[in-house]
Amino acid sequence: MIEETVRRRKPLHPFAPGLGFYKLFWVFFLGCVIGVVVETFWCLLTKYYVENRSGVIYGPFNPVYGLGAVVLTVGLHWLSQKRDLWIFLGSMVLGGAVEYLCSLGQELIFGTVSWEYSETPFNLQGRTNLMFAFFWGLLGLLWVKDFYPRMSDWIERIPWKVGVPLTWVLLVFLAVNMTISGMAVARWTDRVHGVPAQNEVDVFLDETYPNDRMSRVYPNMMVVEDEDGNRII
């Protein structure tokens, strides 16, 4: 009787089954949002004030968390039936790698960093450290055992007629949002280094996304070096 009830509740042709494009997009999208919410509350609990933790200019989205969710989902899938210790260790490695590579990529592309752990014990070039790798391990274990199965079930219950067009609308929105945000950050870096506007696009970015606005959107972002080789906050 119970099995029949479960079968009735689950759609015959679920939206985004397995680990295909639609499933991973929604994992990325929800990870972008949930990560911002969690870190905002963490900041409130530890620092006693609300600080913007978004990674893009428009909306509560941070692609770093979305990427982390996708990497944990795909990278730990083959470990899901293994002992908890292996899942924990695998998540430590994957999470630390994501954090390191995102920091390195941001510095190489935009000349900025959003976190800096050089003063913490057991750090790796200031981009990640052992403590946060430990947290990644715990998160990965919870993700595999509880969070992802619940999220996957919820995603698969989205009706096809809603899920497919909504996916593409959100994909275009995030792509445009991330592109504009990246251009605004790159131009912000140029302004800090005293580079004048070179074209109409630069003028638009200067007028629409001035330094004070960018500082509010990215309160923790630092330009890596000025002309004297010093970090600029």
Global mean pLDDT: 89
Distance between the termini: 63 Å
β content, as a range? under 5%
Helix content: 55-70%
Oligomer: single chain
Structural class: mainly alpha
What is the number of domains? Answer: 1
Low-pLDDT runs:
1-8, 229-233
Biggest β-sheet, characterized?
2 strands, antiparallel
Q: Going across the biggest sheet, name each strand in turn.
A: 1-4
Number of separate helices? 8
Radius of gyration: 20 Å
Shape: globular
Q: Could you walk me through the main structural features you see in this protein, from its secondary elements to its overall organization?
A:
The protein is mainly alpha-helical. It has one domain (19-223). It is built from eight helices and four strands. The strands form two sheets. It has a two-stranded antiparallel sheet. Helix 2 crosses helix 6 (160-192). It starts with a helix and ends in a 10-residue tail after the last strand. Residues 1-8 and 229-233 have low confidence and may be disordered.
